[in-house]
Amino acid sequence: MIARRITYLLILSCFSIASFAQNSAAWLKGGVNFANISYNSKGQVDDANMLTSFHVGIMGDINIAKVFAIQPGLFFTGKGAKVQSGNSTDLNYYKATTNPLYVELPVNAVIKLPLSSDESSFFFGAGPYIAMGVGGKRKIEGRSVGVAYSSKENIQFSNDDPTTFNNEEGAGFGVMKRFDYGFNGTAGLQMKGLLLSVNYGYGLAKLQSGSNSSTDDKNKNRVLSISIGFKL
Hints:
- By secondary structure, the protein is mainly beta.
- The protein has one domain (2-81, 99-132, 179-231): Porin.
- It has one helix at residues 2-20; strands spanning 24-37, 51-65, 68-78, 81-85, 93-114, 121-144, 147-154, 157-158, 176-177, 179-190, 194-203, 221-231.
- An eight-stranded antiparallel beta barrel has the order 1-2-3-5-6-10-11-12.
- Strand 2 (51-65) and strand 3 (68-78) form a beta hairpin.
- The longest helix is centred in the first third of the chain and has 19 residues, at 2-20.
């Protein structure tokens, strides 16, 4: 049901973007995410905790001026991280993987620098994003004194109101906030019918739901994405 709704949203977004302005285009984009979660108040991450995921969706390209454009998008994207202690061959071993899935809406303002006369350009820019959690899995596996164990469960999201930043409704320990938000930085190469880009998402919303304490304010999404796009 969720996948069907997301497909409808992507199709609607495609038609909306294409009809928004005469001097606009729509791109089908997808690629790989290198997701992580910050662990301190400075937003730093542990590279060993990086989780590989994916993204797919529609991006608009609305040219406001010759070298300036607005690029809204609608994506189905995976985030999260993994935590591991020891190796799978050790007597004691632990690995936990959290892979939440979001529907994300970024809006980037970009500068385009023409490279030649065949509509190729280098672009770079930034902008905000908002995202809503729609699914995902949490996996745990390990070994304690040689005895193996494992579990797999669906990620639960609280029904928090995105306009209340400190008090989440229906909150509980281990339940993730449904809404994520932050900023993007993006750069890439746009050709006549092909687009290559990189994007970095810097989350500002704490992931754990249900407390006003600072103990879980350090955990926020960080996602490096590499994309390829095709003009529709």
